[in-house]
Design goal:
The complex is a heterodimer of chains A (about 650) and B (about 160). Helices cover about 60% and strands about 10% of the residues of chain A. With about 650 residues, chain A is an alpha+beta fold. Chain A folds into 4 domains: about 120 residues, Alpha-Beta Plaits (2-Layer Sandwich); about 130 residues; about 70 residues, 2-Layer Sandwich (Alpha-Beta Plaits), CATH 3.30.70; about 260 residues, no CATH class. In chain A, helix 1 packs antiparallel against helix 9, helix 14 packs antiparallel against helix 15 and helix 14 packs parallel to helix 20. Chain B is elongated and about 60 Å long. In chain B, about 80% of the residues lie in helices and about 0% in strands. The chains are: A alpha+beta (about 650), B mainly alpha (about 160). Chains A and B meet through helix 10, helix 14, helix 19 and helix 20 of A and helix 2, helix 3 and helix 6 of B.
């Protein structure tokens, strides 16, 4: 138990069987493939016989296929989003297929996918054309609208040999001045004010070709802005009506095109499955990039649990007669990927372990050691029997319905945590902040918080000693008896001695124990220093670490603080709710307020309890013995969302 | 007629809610800004960023519960108003100070730590646990402040 024993494997087989073998490895999902394209010490003596394998072309082909499927899926989602809440996502079950079933389906899926892609691509192009046409229509309408009072057909408003005519705008504010100017000039001319819109006045101005310069002079003065409507013929009203009609046609066409998208919706699931298949295949091709090859063979290196070796060998034998599998234990000090292995009841707590990171491959898996404390701390941080029952019920319900592995771990922790919370709440007699069943079983945390604090410190001390014991045992087992005694034993003695000082009967004994251990620490803690003086000073300085133990211990007071926080907030919610209860409508509001308030309190404090219980492990407990820095094991496996491919159902 | 002592006690209750609340508002706001930026790129990170955003919110709650504890102990709600002496009133006021200022500053700093955590999970979503641990390190001081405030409040003779 703890950190799994790992083996390194080298697999040599024929190129012809490569795809088949990779498929088997991926379905088994137990091997982490190491990249051996760069030679290391172990492979150096045959490195020149081989070259990096590659699957670039296949990879490109798959990538482009994936891009197409993704385009189709995104397109469908854009117009018809999948209405899936978080709950649906959690409850979703993957469809299970055997490799044979898959082979039978695949060609059909590929063809369907290609069809959907083609039709959606066409739709996309058509929508783009439609959008451009719509924009053009809108522009034309915008251009024509200010002129809609003009009743003449536009072709009659064009320049002739004798008459100069222009349409355009001048600033609306200058209209009066313009009119005055136009009346004053002595050349025959006309103008018509068609409309005023916002800051512009829309005009038609005309004169004899011979007088153009005089009129233009004035126009220039009023910063006349020429409008060109030459592309239109007929009346403005006619043109506008035409635009409207065309827009309606476009809208109709658009609806038709959208219905084509809707018709493709039935293939969404097929596309999702196909996307999964392609991703699985892409992983296979990416794995190839980590292999080395000769003309006819390939070599694969990787890690797997020693326990899985035989099963893998059998699976490989089923598909290949000619492969060589070399298996070895890790070399001394070799860094292997870490897999945590724990008994069934501890396994869910690996979730908490992994949140922090993997332990060192040659370190200790802390999971089973902290699990009981985690549960107790969680319960004490919440301390409300009602909340505990609610959490347990919801987690139990979730466990019945939800299949996702890591969510299940979390739910299992919460289930036990909820029971622990209920127990803690029961002992101090708090049900949703109220003492439902008379006086508390043990004590009331509100009237006697110091007792709660003492319990927190006692648990903290136990937790810290437990961590020291683990360190002691691991050093002892490793044969480092001296370190076990000096680094752990003396500290233990010193702390116990200091604690005994508080008891009058044992104070004398405590004094001597503490003193003895302190001397022991001064003499031993500097033993790695080179010179005698440094040995002594760093030994002496090591006593300062007592502050570390002290602050770690004080940190457990958070159990009281969070426990009280839950209680006081419940009390606040109940009191505020209670203010409303006299009136019938008030009563309804009170009920809603109580439910909402307690849900809020439960959520925020359950989050806090989980995080702080974890923290007490990561900082206070890990400090005693834990060595981190492990790399987690990432097996070569099928990463899918909708589909699972398994040999047996 | 309110006694001066009672007025001081109410100032204490107000200060606890006010300052810790300001701190949390700033802290939660800072994380929210960072989170919105990250979620714009990747909407799937909503859950984990929301978790980080909730962390600096607790100080405001601690302030609220200290304030509630004060008005409960001086009998403003659920009882008859205690006639506090000036000394008692000042004692209650100062008992509220740890969570008022501890909450104010720790919430702001925790907000910053959590906002950096949000950037961290933008790059490495699998490391959300570590981002949370960093933010929770700050929370310790809010918890200690709260503890001091409420224990003092429990034991001030009124």
């Amino acid at each position: 138990m703890g950190i799994a024993r790992m083996n390194k494997i080298y697999l040599l087989a024929h190129q012809a069987e490569k795809d088949q073998i990779l498929r088997v490895l991926q379905q088994a999902g137990v091997v982490e493939i190491s990249d051996i394209t760069e030679a290391d010490e172990e492979t150096a003596h045959w490195a020149e016989l081989v070259e990096p394998d590659q699957a670039r072309e296949d990879l490109q082909e798959i990538e482009s296929e994936i891009a197409k499927v993704k385009f189709s899926l995104d397109y469908l989602n854009r117009y018809y989003p999948e209405k899936k809440g978080m709950l649906d996502e959690l409850l979703a079950e993957k469809e299970v297929l055997t490799p044979e079933e898959l082979a039978a389906q695949e060609a059909e899926w590929a063809q369907k996918s290609a069809e959907v892609y083609a039709s959606l691509k066409k739709v996309d192009e058509e929508l783009l054309t439609l959008r451009n046409a719509e924009t053009r229509l809108q522009n034309a309408t915008q251009q024509l609208l200010p002129w809609q009072n003009l009743t003449l057909p536009l072709e009659e408003l064009r320049e002739t040999k004798a008459v100069w005519v222009q349409l355009g705008t001048i600033p609306a504010a200058a209209t009066e001045a313009f009119q005055v100017q136009m009346q004053q000039i002595d050349v025959p001319s006309f103008y018509e004010l068609v409309s005023r819109e916002r800051d512009d006045a829309y005009l038609v101005v005309g004169c004899h070709q011979d007088d153009v310069e005089t009129v233009q002079e004035i126009l220039k003065e009023f910063s006349f802005n020429r409008h060109n409507l030459n592309q239109f013929t007929g009346t403005i009203a006619g043109n506008l009506a035409e635009c409207e009609q065309k827009a309606a046609e476009l809208e109709k066409r658009r609806a038709e095109v959208l219905s084509v998208i809707e018709a493709q919706l039935e293939h969404r699931q097929t596309l999702q499955y196909f996307h999964d298949i392609l991703s699985v295949r892409r992983e296979q091709k990416l794995a190839v990039e980590k292999l080395v090859r000769t003309d006819t063979t390939f070599v694969l290196a990787g890690w797997l649990r020693a326990a899985d070796v035989e099963a893998l060998r059998q699976k490989l034998s089923a598909v290949s007669k000619t492969f060589a599998l070399q298996v070895r234990e890790p070399l001394p000090e070799e860094n292997f990927p870490v897999v945590l292995e724990n008994k069934k009841y501890f396994a869910p707590f690996e979730f908490v372990t992994k949140l922090y990171g993997m332990p060192h491959p040659y370190g200790i898996d802390p999971t089973p050691y902290f699990a009981p404390f985690f549960i107790i701390f969680f319960g004490l941080c919440l301390t409300d029997a009602g909340y505990g029952v609610v959490i347990s019920l919801i987690s139990a319900l979730g466990l019945l319905k939800i299949k996702g592995e890591s969510i299940r771990s979390l739910l299992k922790i919460l289930l036990v945590g909820g029971i622990s919370t209920a127990a803690a709440g029961w002992l101090i007699g708090s049900w949703f902040g109220v003492s439902l069943f008379g006086s508390p079983l043990l004590f009331d945390s509100m009237t006697n918080p110091m007792l709660f604090l003492a319990i927190s410190f006692a648990l903290g001390l136990l937790h810290i000693f437990w961590g020291m014991l683990i360190k002691f045992v691991s050093l002892w087992k490793a044969g480092d008896y001296f370190a076990a005694l000096a680094d752990v034993g003396f500290w233990f003695g010193l702390i116990v001695g200091l604690l005994l000082l508080a008891l009058p009967q044992a104070a004398q004994a405590g004094k001597y124990i503490a003193l003895l251990c302190a001397i022991g620490l001064v003499l031993t803690q500097g033993r790695h220093q080179p010179s005698l003086l440094k040995k002594f000073t760093s030994g002496l300085l090591s006593l300062y670490d007592i502050t570390g133990y002290l602050s770690d211990l004080l940190s457990y007071s958070r159990l009281l603080a969070l426990g009280l926080a839950t209680g006081v907030i419940s009390m606040a919610i109940n009191t505020m709710g209670g203010l409303l209860k006299g009136h019938p409508i008030g009563f309804i509001i009170m009920v809603l307020f109580l439910i909402g308030g307690h849900i809020f309190n439960l959520l925020i404090n359950a989050l806090g309890s989980f995080i702080h219980s974890s923290r007490l492990q990561y900082i206070e407990f890990y400090n005693r013995f834990y060595e981190g820095g492990g790399r987690s094991f990432v097996p070569f496996r099928q990463k899918t969302r909708y589909l699972e491919i398994r040999s047996e159902k | 007629m309110l006694s001066t002592g009672l007025v001081y006690a109410i100032i204490g209750a107000a200060a606890a809610v006010l300052f810790a609340g300001i701190g949390s508002a700033i802290g939660v706001g800072v994380v929210g800004q960072a989170a919105a930026g990250v979620v714009a790129e990747d909407p799937d990170k909503f859950g984990s960023t929301l978790l980080l955003q909730a962390l600096p919110g607790t100080q405001g709650i601690y302030g609220m519960l200290t304030g509630f504890l004060i008005i409960w102990r001086i009998g403003l709600i659920g009882g008859s108003v205690v006639d506090l002496t000036l000394q008692q009133g000042l004692a209650v006021l100062f008992a509220a100070m740890p969570i008022a200022f501890g909450g104010l500053l720790s919430a702001i700093m925790q907000g910053r730590a959590a906002a950096s955590g949000v950037y961290m999970i933008a790059k490495r979503p699998e490391e959300v646990g570590k981002a949370i641990v960093y933010a929770v390190m700050v929370e310790t001081y809010a918890v200690l402040a709260l503890l001091m405030s409420i224990i003092t409040l429990f034991y001030i003779p009124l």
